[in-house]
Structure formats: C-alpha cells, structure tokens
Amino acid sequence: MYSLLFTVICFWCVTVTAAAPPILLPTPKGPYEEKLVEYGAYNGTVLQGLLVYHKSIFPKKATPAVIVFHAFTGRTEFENQKARDLAKTKIKMSRLELGYVAFAADVYGKGVATNDTNANFAIMGQLLAERTTTLQRRVRDAWNYVKSLSYVKDQKIGCTGYCFGGLTCLDLARFDVGLQAAVSFHGTLTNYPGNNASIGASVQAHHGDIDPHTTNQNVSDTVHSNPTISCIRYVMHESTLQAAEFLDEMRARQADWHFTSYADAQHAFTVPCREILAGAANWGIPGAAYNEKADKRAHRAMEGFLAEKLLN
Predict the structure, then answer these.
(1) What are the boundaries of the signal sequence (predicted)?
(2) Residue 230 lies in a domain
(3) Which of the residues 108, 129, 156, 260 has an alpha carbon 20 to 30 A from that of 226?
(4) Between β-strands 101-104 and 45-54, what pairing exists: parallel, antiparallel or unpaired?
C-alpha cells in the first residue's frame, strides 16, 4: 500500500512540474513551424509561450535562439509576431539560410492576462513586488526551456523585451546564466535588488528621449498601499535620471553595453497604433506613442547586434 501511495505521489509531482506536450497550431503556409508550449508549472501556474522555427532546423542542432519577453499586456500577437520575424531573419546555417529559433515567453501564466489595462497593470505590479522570487523564477523558466531544446545551441541564446519585457530581458542578463545578448526596447531600467555581480551578456538598450517619468514611488509600495489605484500610477516610464542610473549600473557591473536614446520618441515607440487596447492607441497610456523612425532604427540595430553576438 505504501509503495502504491509513493507511486501516486511521484506521478502527481511529475505531472505538475513537467512541461506539457507542445500544442501544434494549424500548419502555417510556408516553411515555418509554430507551437504553443506549456512550461514552468510552479505552484499551479502553467506558463504558455509560442515557439517558432524554420522546419528545416528540426531535428538539426546548433541553432541560435532568441527569447521575446512581453510587455505589461502579457504575451499578445505583438510578441508572437516579433518571434515570427526573428524566425524569418535570414542567417546562414551551413548551406542553408534559416532564421533563429524564436520563443515568445510568458511570465504571467496561461490565460492570466486580460484585455483590461488596469487589470494587466495590477498583474505586472504584483510581479514587480515579487521580482526576486516569482518573477525571477518565471524568467529563468523561459531560459531553461529554450536551453533544453535539442536543436538550440545553448551558448548562443539572446533575448529581447518590450516595456515590462525590457526589464525581464535585462534581469535575465543580470542573472548571468550564460545569455549572450539582451536587447531592451523602451524597457524599465531599474536595477535588480541586491545583485551587483558582473554581467557576462552584451546589453543593448533602446530608449525614448522624451519617455515621461510618471512616478518616483516604488511599485511594490504602491501596490500594497492601494491595490485599486488607477493604471497610470503603475507606469514605470524612464526619466533621463533613471537612464543615467542604468548606465552607472552597467559600468559598475563591467557590462558590454550599448545605449541609444531616440529623438522625439516617447514610451512604447515600437508599438504601432494598430496595437489597440481599451479603445486607445498604444495601450491607452499617456506619454506613449508610436514613432516609426525610432522603431525601424532600433530594430535594425537589434538585427546587427544579435548577428554579432549569436552568429560568430
């Protein structure tokens, strides 16, 4: 009886913690494969990301990979498309020209994000309050999943992130897990608490020169003091002072960094106006606006940077 009970308990543990088989989406036209992947599964929260790669890669090995971290909205079609774009980037692999293995990660949990701006800000605020615990674990889960893929070259993995995803992308670089490149687009730049170790990954940060600074108050204090506070108080836009503090951090950590500030660019400058939530362009956030020139320049810079770090 005891052996049977032990077997049942072990089976339960495996089913909770193991990644579920990938969900094959309807076969897309063309040479690319897309899979919804469930992974993580800590404390009952299952994470779900989108994996995209050229069909000729599988089951080949030694392919560079890029993780895409989402904004406060959770993983949306915006991040999914960024993963597709990376998978379609032409990189030379032997005699073929294939793209990266791209993974649009999830740090909220399957089905957690909503179409309500305030609700999504509350989810983000709670994770920021748990930045050194829950959020760190979920960022590492994305890294561990991609690194475990047999056709990924684990020494050649990079990441990108947008807004809140810029913070999680930079945090993965701060963890010094072996990441090669981290690219933040209008990301939150605040330092990781209690971590002053050297950063081995190369860092590229793209910043809007007129990205407004909404509040100096720590987000975790804000969440606990008033859980029903309006979304605008959660916004962690970056002031020039915070950008300067970020550069001081990069210097102190002896990082290989590249920081670009774009003229006339506000927050969310890479998010086209067609990405509409709550009936307003650019997520309905004051001080957020698309800037086509800055968007194109930033992504061209990203392409060259990733090629330098992941293909050499």
Answers:
(1) 1-19
(2) no
(3) 108
(4) antiparallel
